[in-house]
Design brief:
This protein is of the alpha/beta class and 199 residues long. Helix content is 35%, strand content 27%.
Length: 199
């Protein structure tokens, strides 16, 4: 029976199946890495001491989910995004873009601050000042600070939770394994039909 197998199609199918199985195990590895990352972020979120005046020149992995404090000397603009309040109400998050220059960079330093929650889309009158909150990924710059306490008379934002980060790698792994199994089943049925037709 083995001699009757078409060589090139069989090799191609087995290579494809091996690749899909390998991708499945790679997704499992990614799942464990993501679990460890979330655990690290959770530990960081429990730190009570705030990091003072970070540079805000790009996404800083070491700051993620840590408390930070700094001064916003100028609000360059406002935007809104959908979000939830600390008491779990849907509404509008008011986001301020803070900018300043210290003369050491061609561009001004910038950070987006989720100032607080509201059901009013109008921008608050807050024009800058002291900020403390949690440094998280996201926003237009790839990082942002969720203010705590809120600013400009707004209500408190929902507190960032690392456990809200998606970890879908297990489902992706299962999909790759199912793709591999499906390919084997389809090829097996094709071989059986070929054998019957040639009998």
């Amino acid at each position: 029976m083995a001699r009757q197998l078409p060589l090139i199609p069989t090799v191609l199918v087995l290579v494809a199946v091996a690749v899909m199985v390998r991708l499945g195990f790679w997704q499992i590895d990614r799942m464990h890495q993501k679990d460890a990352q979330i655990a690290s972020y959770t530990a960081a979120s429990r730190e009570t001491a705030a990091i003072d005046s970070p540079a805000f020149t790009g996404l800083d992995e070491g700051l993620l989910y840590r408390r930070v404090s700094f001064s916003c000397p100028k609000v360059a603009g406002w935007r809104t995004t959908a979000g939830r309040s600390a008491d779990n109400r849907d509404g509008i998050i008011q986001v301020a873009r803070c900018e300043w220059s210290d003369g050491s960079a061609a561009r001004p330093h910038a950070v987006e601050v989720e100032a607080g929650w509201s059901n009013n889309p109008a921008a608050p009158t807050w024009a800058g000042g002291p900020v403390s909150g949690t440094y998280v990924p996201g926003g237009l710059l790839g990082y942002k600070v969720v203010a705590d306490p809120p600013l400009g008379g707004l209500a408190a934002n929902a507190r960032p939770d690392p456990n809200d980060l998606p970890n879908n790698h297990w489902s992706y792994a299962v999909q790759w394994f199912l793709f591999a199994l499906t390919a084997l089943v389809i090829y097996g049925l094709a071989l059986r039909k070929r054998t019957r037709d040639s009998a």
